[in-house]
Design brief:
The protein is α/β, with parallel strands linked by helices. The protein is built from twelve helices and 19 strands. Bound molecules: dihydropyrimidine-2,4(1H,3H)-dione (DUC) and zinc ion (ZN) (3 copies).
Length: 473
């Protein structure tokens, strides 16, 4: 046979085009796109299906230790298996430094966590929580050079938050060494003040999580992050943007010619603050930060997805079990909202929700779907065109997607290690059918058939998108 694998009669979709073609794979890479391709050792019939570049999830948390005693429910095996079953072929979780630890030691620790476990390819973002002179001057530049070309900065959380001076020092490193800085933009003091007032009034239920971080908390920090990026003269990415007021800040900055990128997540498209109410502790299942807002904010998120203010859609998969003293019930059946670990699972449902709510409901085009969920995250983090593209020579990371299959999401059908999904009962149209990673079929008929450990670590290039307007001197 001429090819290892030929995918025939599908509709190929990229960030720019939709067209009918066959696709041939040799040695794990895309070798031909055309009509009437020669025979393959393996032939896959994609009649009536979409053929897409595999999803790139640019924001997820796998096997990430916390300082509060809670535990990540997914490690690199269950997390990447769940991702693959949802049509994602590259994940970028975090290697998180805890205070006092060297950044290099954090990276070594996370490699140990991933080794032998991942079923799909992965890279790492860094999280800097302790920006010492040693880190700023040597460790971080060396790691950027070694292929860890993005790092996250937290403006809130006691164990992670950095002050404005520290953020500026880090942005200077991003500018000089060519890294993408990702910013969690919420005002820590506003949250602390509101939380204390709520608790003093006896308001401890999950729903008060939303009242402890209203939109203005995010709007103020988003504006400040943008101002710091302007001062340091470097592009930044604002992660998990939840609604209109933050979008307005980003749109304003973009209008002034600044390179401010933005990410949102499915939870801000389909959940609302009302999902934090529920009976008893049920609301804990939807506690994430920033919190889900309301219908008007969902509409603003969709407008910004369609209009171009957003660049990427990630899951922010942060897996904590519900009925678990190391999860949402960290302090028992009446855990106050401020002790409930923040985050929702969604690594497997990211593409189906964006496709169904976005493409099928006519809010975004199919090309825009591919761009937001695959091509742009690959570009944002220096993995393009190896990932996120259906180009000759690119890795054959491919999803054969059934655009018409109707699925009611239940936790029982998902492959993560979490005991709930916030999307229980959500009806979606479209689901991934077959998933290839570097030419190898890793998911077939809803089952992951890949060996743990086959996933490879990816060194990221310096992202073009992180370049300042005037080259550093
Ligand atoms: N920030 C994240 O990036 N993920 C989970 C929770 C949070 O606050
Ligand atoms: Zn965050
Ligand atoms: Zn209510
Ligand atoms: Zn996150």
């Amino acid at each position: 046979p001429q090819f290892d694998t030929v995918i025939r009669h599908g509709t190929l979709a990229t960030a720019s085009d939709v067209f009918a073609a066959d696709l041939g794979v040799i040695g794990g890479r895309i070798a031909a796109i055309g009509t009437g391709l020669g025979p393959g050792a393996r032939e896959i019939d994609a009649t009536g299906k979409l053929v897409l570049p595999g999803g790139v999830d640019g924001h997820c948390h796998l096997d990430q230790p916390t300082s509060d005693g809670s535990q990540s429910a997914d490690d690199f095996e269950t997390g990447t298996r769940s991702a693959a079953c949802g049509g994602t072929t590259t994940v970028i979780p975090f290697a998180c430094q805890f205070k006092g630890q060297s950044l290099r030691d954090a990276v070594t620790d996370y490699h140990r966590r991933a080794d032998g476990k991942a079923v799909i390819d992965y890279a790492f973002h860094l999280i800097v929580s302790d920006p010492t002179d040693q880190l700023l001057g040597q460790d971080l530049p060396a790691l950027i050079h070694d292929g860890y070309t993005s790092f996250k900065i937290y403006m809130t959380y006691d164990d992670m938050k950095l002050n404005d001076r520290q953020v500026l020092e880090l942005l200077s490193v991003a500018r000089r060494d060519g890294a993408m800085a990702m910013i969690h933009a919420e005002n820590a003091d506003f949250i602390g003040w509101l939380t204390d007032k709520l608790l003093a009034a006896g308001h401890t239920a999950p729903r008060y999580h939303a009242d402890s971080r209203p939109m203005l908390v995010e709007r103020e920090a988003t504006h400040r992050a943008i101002a710091m990026a302007e001062l340091a003269d470097v592009p930044i990415l604002i992660v998990h943007v939840s609604g209109r007021e933050a979008i307005e800040q980003i749109h304003w900055a973009q209008g002034r010619g600044m390179r401010i990128y933005a990410e949102t997540c499915p939870q801000y498209m389909v959940l609302t603050e009302h999902d934090l109410h529920g009976h008893g502790m049920e609301g804990a299942k939807c506690i994430c930060s920033p919190p889900p807002r309301d219908k008007a904010n969902q509409a603003a998120v969709w407008d910004a997805l369609a209009g171009g203010t957003f660049h990427i859609v990630s899951s922010d998969h942060a897996p904590f079990r519900y009925q678990d003293p190391k999860g949402k019930m960290l302090h028992g059946a009446n855990t106050p909202f401020n002790w409930i670990p923040n985050g929702v699972p969604g690594i497997e449902t990211r593409l189906p929700i964006l496709f169904s709510e976005g493409v099928k409901k006519g809010r975004i085009s199919l090309q825009r779907f591919v761009e937001l969920s695959s091509t742009n995250p690959a570009k944002m983090y220096g993995l393009h065109p190896r990932k996120g593209s259906l180009a000759i020579g690119a890795d054959a990371d491919i999803v054969i997607y059934d655009p018409d299959r109707k699925v009611t999401i239940t936790n029982a059908m998902l492959h993560h290690n979490v005991d709930y999904t916030p999307y229980e009962g959500l009806e979606v149209t479209g689901w991934p059918e077959t998933v290839l990673s570097r030419g190898e079929v890793v998911v077939e008929g809803g089952t992951c058939v890949a060996q743990p450990g086959r996933g490879a670590f990816l060194r990221c290039d310096t992202p073009d998108l992180a370049r300042p307007k005037v080259a550093a001197v």
